[in-house]
Design brief:
CATH superfamily of the largest domain: Medium-chain alcohol dehydrogenases, catalytic domain
Largest sheet: 5 strands, antiparallel
Strand order of the largest sheet: 9-3-4-5-10
CATH architecture of the largest domain: Alpha-Beta Complex
Radius of gyration: 19 Å
Strand content: 25-35%
Number of strands: 15
Number of helices: 7
Number of domains: 2
Helix content: 10-25%
Length: about 250
């Protein structure tokens, strides 16, 4: 099969189709998304070597469970070890020994085929296009914020960033009815949020907030987010970048 492989340089290669292990599925990739995490991997993030890519839509072509054959699917990207205390508590996404599709120890979606455990798969509903379904993984990351943090309608919430992930997070957080502000550097991107209604946009930081979501993808985003928090406020970190930050 054709695949993009990263080993310090990104190259198009011919490589064998992966063999699915027990309880795994072989998936023919229909389309794959390019995430900022992928771009940071190319700068050295995680020291990854292999086939990158973790946002995908595909069709199951081989599987032990015949019910999945021919299904159009997306997939959760974390593969826990299955035996550690976190995995036994249902926290496989936070397993210390996990592999992550296209990011850590597991070849990803920039290829004609990939493998994933059946337990990680979600069927794409009929009527939903591949292009829309491709946003499942980053949208799930946005919804996870509401699982982890209780945002009340009277909370003042700031999103630092105006890129793809920030756009999705804003749409999710907006459903809480909170007082929502987005801070970004690109007026044309902020305009997308203004059209939604119920979101204030800024190009310069101002004021303090009960909850700040940092998803700028830039090292300086952390200091901006910290300075915008009220005492005992809640900081949610969603940025991925290769490099270090200074925390005082």
């Amino acid at each position: 099969m054709k695949a993009l492989r990263f080993d310090g340089d990104l190259t198009l290669v011919d490589t064998p189709v992966p063999e699915p292990a027990e309880k795994e599925a072989l998936i023919r990739v229909s389309c794959a998304g390019i995430c900022n995490t992928d771009l940071e991997i190319f700068r050295g993030y995680m020291g990854f070597s292999g086939i990158p890519g973790h946002e995908f839509v595909g069709v199951v072509e081989a599987c032990d469970d015949p019910r999945w054959m021919g299904k159009r699917v997306v997939g959760e990207i974390n593969l826990g070890c299955g035996s550690c205390p976190r995995c036994r508590r249902g926290l496989a996404r936070h397993c210390g020994n996990r592999r992550v599709l296209g990011i850590l120890g597991k070849d990803g979606a920039f290829a004609e085929y990939l493998t994933l455990p059946v337990a990680n798969l979600h069927e794409v509903p009929e009527g939903l296009s591949d292009e829309a379904a491709l946003f499942t993984e980053p949208l799930a990351a946005a919804f996870e914020i509401l699982e982890q943090v209780h945002i009340r309608p009277d909370d003042a919430v700031l999103i630092v960033g105006d890129g793809k992930l920030a756009q999705l997070i804003a749409r999710v957080v907006r459903t809480t009815g909170c007082r929502l502000t987005c801070l970004g550097r690109h007026p044309e991107k902020l305009a997308h949020l203004q059209r939604l209604g119920g979101i204030e946009t800024r190009t310069e930081p101002e004021g303090r907030y009960d909850v700040v979501v940092e998803c700028s993808g830039k090292p300086e985003g952390l200091s901006i987010a910290l300075s915008a928090l009220v005492p005992r406020g809640t900081l949610v970190l969603k940025s991925t970048f290769h490099g270090k930050v200074t925390l005082e």
